[in-house]
């Protein structure tokens, strides 16, 4: 429950809605409670008229009119409060969703290594839906009911302390009995959520990679796996729901016994003359009103438990540690935008005794790497697949902190430079182009606040992309589909080159696209890349011998260490990895081809 209160605190800007709902709930309870009093009074008047003890028909008509008035007022207040509840819920959803997304944008890369995209999405939906559903239910019906119950207890105390005592006993007993069952209920709920999360995660992956599924003909397997999780959830629900409803039947039986006692007291005491018929009618109505929340308790507890589980999940994500000095943190804190004194001297990039492991295992992926890259140099990293080339670049981008040693850019340790400033210095062309849905214009200008048509065209022309863009019916306004699915591999790459050109960062990282491009497309992309590399310090995660042979220096990695550093000419004769790859390139033997593949090298 504490976490739900925390949620309300998180969205404290909605206080006007909270206040409105409280006032509305009091008004609903007041109008609802007055109705039994009017009916009781009318009963007494009717009994008096029938018994010949006075009373007038006009009083009865006035009392009926009062009932109409109260009923109308109750309807208006119920709907006005319901309206406020709906407004509060939708605003709360917006606030919580924004917070969640904001948090995800602040989390370090490491967080995403252990989570599936679909899981993150399904968790977001579930936690926020359960919280808003609960608060909507609470404000629209349960809160007015709570106030009514409280008032009923006070009124019963006035008329019959016995009755009040019984009512006072009912609620805590019922809540206690419910809480006993709900602990076990929650364990099943978490287990079910795990299944939903895994299924949701896989669902998103499969939808995102439908081509792979189709080409490997794994539709049946994927469907079976997906359904399996839902079947397991159904199995858990059978146990969960069976247990809950058995216990609920028991609870209600206890409750029925208590209400039997209440009614018996009322009937007997009225017959003995302790109450008038009117007061008995009043008490019966009040007791029935008091009974409602108890019978609705199982729905309430169900919704509340879900909300508690949801808010726990929400705060679990919120408790994750942010990436230090994330751009969103800087924007929010209102702190002055940090600046950094970049040093113009060489080297532009340096690794000094850098070691790194991903943390899940103690094994180091990089060991004692020392390397310096000068301004304008083109350096190719070559090594076995999984040898740590991308990891080196990850450290340079500060996506992970080095376990030991120092990575420097422009003479500054990346540890001390805010990631925003560091990443502005580095342009990246990813192996898989990594575009977003939207137009070509939006993709090329990604991350740039304002861009003119002329700048856009220049970047596209230099990236060798203008020709194909112009041939498209909508030109720069063409929608490219999710991750650019409507474009060819080469076209996507050229857009990502144009994007990097527009970013115009002095340091460039190229993760070379390999087998995805045919020779013609490769040539088209290469022309753009040559243009992009002009005047920039470039690290190439190399996958083509043709590229490697044109760089200024090659760095070969073996078992996480730098093996050799030298020009292509120098390394061609040392007998090291590069020389070996060169020797293999003409060979058509299976073993040699396998060796090239181990280095992720295409000719
Ligand atoms: N996010 C991660 N979490 C845990 N281990 C990782 C992660 N990323 C990479 N690794 C491991 O680190 C090692 C180096 O991976 P890296 O991606 O740097 O290799 P690479 O040389 O770029 O390979 P390739 O040429 O195939 O892309 C591999 O053994 C890999 O399994």
Throw out a few tags for this protein.
603 residues, alpha/beta, ABC transporter transmembrane region fold, Rossmann fold, six-stranded mixed sheet, 10 strands, elongated, binds adenosine-5'-triphosphate
Task: Explain what you see.
This protein has 603 residues and is α/β, with parallel strands linked by helices. Among the domains are: 2-318, ABC transporter transmembrane region fold (Up-down Bundle), CATH 1.20.1560; 432-504, Rossmann fold, CATH 3.40.50. It is built from 22 helices and 10 strands. The chain has helices at 2-10, 15-50, 57-106, 109-113, 117-159, 161-208, 210-215, 219-271, 277-295, 297-318, 327-333, 389-396, 419-424, 440-444, 453-462, 466-471, 489-503, 519-533, 545-548, 568-571, 577-584, 590-598; strands spanning 349-356, 366-373, 378-383, 404-409, 412-413, 426-429, 507-511, 537-541, 553-558, 561-566. It has a 6-stranded mixed sheet, sandwiched between helices. The longest helix is centred in the middle third of the chain and has 53 residues, at 219-271. It is elongated, with a radius of gyration of 35 Å. The two termini are 63 Å apart. The model has no long low-confidence stretch (mean pLDDT 86). Adenosine-5'-triphosphate binds next to helix 12. Adenosine-5'-triphosphate is lined by residues 113, 358, 360, 365, 383, 385-391, 600. This is ATP-binding cassette, subfamily B.
């Amino acid at each position: 429950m504490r976490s739900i209160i925390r949620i309300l605190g998180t969205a404290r800007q909605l206080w006007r809605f909270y206040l409105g709902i409280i006032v509305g709930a009091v008004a609903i309870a007041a109008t609802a409670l007055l109705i039994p009093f009017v009916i009781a009074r009318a009963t007494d008047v009717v009994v008096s008229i029938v018994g010949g003890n006075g009373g007038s028909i006009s009083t009865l008509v006035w009392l009926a009119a009062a009932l109409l008035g109260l009923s109308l007022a109750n309807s208006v207040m119920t709907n006005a409060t319901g309206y406020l509840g709906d407004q509060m819920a939708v605003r709360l959803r917006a606030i919580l969703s924004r917070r969640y997304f904001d948090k995800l944008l602040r989390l370090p890369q490491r967080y995403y290594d252990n989570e599936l995209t679909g899981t993150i999405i399904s968790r977001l939906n579930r936690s926020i839906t359960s919280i808003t559903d609960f608060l909507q239910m609470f404000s629209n019906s349960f809160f007015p009911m709570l106030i009514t119950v409280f008032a009923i207890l006070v009124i019963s105390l006035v008329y019959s302390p016995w009755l009040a005592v019984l009512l006072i006993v009912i609620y805590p007993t019922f809540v206690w009995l419910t809480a006993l069952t709900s602990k076990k209920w929650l364990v099943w709920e978490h287990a079910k959520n795990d299944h939903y999360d895994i299924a949701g995660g896989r669902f998103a992956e499969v939808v995102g990679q439908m081509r792979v599924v189709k080409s490997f003909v794994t539709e049946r397997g994927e469907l079976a796996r997906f359904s399996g999780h839902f079947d397991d959830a159904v199995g858990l629900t059978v146990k969960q729901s069976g247990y809950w409803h058995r216990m609920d039947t028991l609870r209600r039986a206890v409750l029925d016994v208590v209400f039997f006692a209440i009614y018996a007291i009322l009937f007997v005491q009225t017959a003995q003359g302790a109450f008038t018929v009117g007061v008995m009618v009043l008490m019966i109505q009040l007791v029935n009103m008091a009974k409602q929340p108890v019978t609705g308790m199982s729905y309430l507890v169900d919704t509340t438990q879900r909300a508690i589980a949801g808010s726990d999940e929400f705060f679990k994500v919120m408790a994750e540690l942010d990436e230090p000095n994330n751009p969103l943190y800087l924007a929010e804190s209102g702190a002055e935008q940090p600046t950094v004194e970049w040093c113009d001297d060489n080297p532009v990039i340096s690794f000094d005794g850098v070691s790194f492991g991903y943390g899940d295992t103690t094994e180091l992926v990089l060991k004692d790497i020392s390397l310096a890259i000068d301004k304008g140099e083109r350096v190719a990293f070559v090594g076995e697949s999984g040898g740590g080339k991308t990891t080196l670049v990850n450290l340079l981008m500060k996506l992970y902190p080095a376990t030991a040693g120092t990575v420097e850019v422009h003479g500054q340790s990346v540890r001390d430079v805010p990631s925003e400033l560091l990443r502005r210095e580095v342009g990246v062309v990813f192996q898989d182009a990594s575009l977003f849905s939207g137009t070509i214009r939006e993709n090329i200008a990604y991350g740039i606040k304002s861009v003119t048509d002329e700048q856009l065209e220049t970047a596209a022309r230099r990236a060798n992309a203008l020709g194909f863009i112009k041939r498209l019916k909508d030109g720069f306004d063409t929608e490219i589909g999710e991750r650019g699915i409507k474009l060819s591999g080469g076209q996507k790459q050229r857009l990502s080159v144009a994007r990097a050109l527009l970013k115009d960062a002095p340091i460039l990282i190229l993760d070379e696209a390999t087998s995805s491009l045919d020779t013609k497309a490769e040539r088209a992309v290469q022309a753009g890349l040559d243009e992009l590399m002009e005047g920039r310090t470039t690290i190439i995660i190399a996958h083509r011998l043709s590229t490697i042979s044109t760089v200024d220096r090659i760095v070969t990695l073996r078992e996480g260490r730098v093996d050799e550093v030298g020009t292509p000419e120098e390394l061609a004769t040392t007998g090291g990895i590069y020389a070996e790859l060169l020797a293999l390139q003409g060979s058509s033997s299976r073993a040699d081809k396998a060796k090239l593949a181990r280095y992720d090298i295409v000719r």
